[in-house]
């Protein structure tokens, strides 16, 4: 029985393509896993450490968390890598002053999933349809103001026969089969919505357009602070700044007059906003909250 369970667990974990997890000894004292088969112990180890795949690495970090030689490398994401392998990504962490704040490991099942353009199309269509107000309305023949008297005799006038002046053929009349208030929302499963957000984040990370900041602190609320940093960015037209919690007041004041810089809390991050901006700047806290949200089981 244990062998069949372990084989099924290993097959499901192999399909995820996970790699680069922390070291774990299954035979450590007090572990409680010594009596299980080795492949089952390894599978349970992967599941127990899944929530720790996103962390911050600094030169002061211990060597047990991640190989220390990676901290000395400047180029940690290459554009020629294979996308969609569910591999954890290591990217540098900076701030608006371009100071080195160490490195951060991004969960591979959020920032390195296969690109699916059809999923992105469906999610964007769902977003645009859901945000329509649907308050458009026209009047039917029973709602148009006017008399119900027959305008002239049926015969003998030489004119066309009509029974009312409130018809659609008369000026000021009704509209036949016109729009009425309704909801334009379409149905989309939560798994598909989550997958669309993962694909959008993966695309920005693969393009090298995902920047992670240690914090969003600004010295003052002056717009020139954001403008000076924007001018240093290459091949960037619009920037989306994502914070973990409520938007900082100084950051809000510094960006409110810039049409090419927009801010969002992590709870409001969506696929359409990511596609509208070619560069995504996220705080470390925002990355952790996004990963935690996407790892939370869906309640049915």
UniProtKB/TrEMBL annotation:
Biased composition (Polar residues): 135-145
UniProt keyword terms in alphabetical order: Ribonucleoprotein, Ribosomal protein
Protein's GO biological process: translation
Gene3D superfamilies named in the record: 3.40.1370.10
Superkingdom of origin organism: Eukaryota
InterPro entries for the chain: Ribosomal_uL4, Ribosomal_uL4-like, Ribosomal_uL4_dom_sf
Gene Ontology CC, one term: ribosome
Molecular-function GO terms, alphabetical: structural constituent of ribosome
Region (Disordered): 135-173
Pfam families: Ribosomal_L4
Similarity comment text for this entry: Belongs to the universal ribosomal protein uL4 family.
Name of the protein in its database record: Large ribosomal subunit protein uL4m
């Amino acid at each position: 029985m244990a062998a069949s369970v372990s084989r099924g667990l290993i097959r499901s974990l192999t399909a995820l393509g996970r790699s680069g997890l922390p070291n774990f000894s299954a035979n450590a004292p007090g572990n409680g896993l010594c009596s299980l088969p080795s492949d089952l112990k390894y599978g349970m180890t992967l599941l127990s450490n899944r929530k720790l795949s996103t962390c911050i690495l600094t030169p002061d970090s211990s060597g047990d968390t991640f190989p220390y030689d990676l901290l000395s490398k400047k180029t940690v994401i290459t554009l020629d890598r294979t996308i969609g392998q569910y591999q954890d990504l290591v990217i540098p962490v900076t701030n608006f002053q371009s100071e080195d704040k160490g490195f951060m490991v991004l969960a591979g099942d959020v920032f390195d999933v296969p690109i699916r353009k059809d999923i992105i199309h469906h999610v964007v269509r769902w977003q645009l349809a859901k945000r329509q107000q649907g308050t458009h309305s026209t009047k039917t023949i029973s709602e148009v103001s006017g008399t119900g008297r027959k305008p002239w005799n049926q015969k003998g006038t030489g004119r066309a026969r009509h029974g009312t002046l409130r018809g659609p053929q008369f000026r000021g009349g009704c509209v036949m089969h016109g729009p009425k208030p309704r909801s334009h929302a379409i149905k989309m499963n939560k798994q598909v919505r989550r997958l669309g957000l993962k694909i959008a984040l993966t695309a920005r990370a693969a393009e090298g357009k995902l920047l992670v900041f240690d914090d969003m602190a600004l010295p003052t609320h002056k717009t020139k602070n954001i403008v000076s940093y924007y001018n240093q960015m290459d091949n960037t037209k619009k920037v989306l700044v994502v914070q973990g919690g409520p938007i900082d007041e100084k950051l809000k004041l510094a960006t409110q007059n810039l049409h090419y810089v927009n801010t969002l809390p992590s709870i409001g991050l969506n696929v359409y906003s990511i596609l509208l901006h070619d560069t995504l700047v996220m705080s470390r806290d925002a990355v952790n909250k996004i990963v935690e949200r996407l790892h939370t089981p869906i309640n049915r």
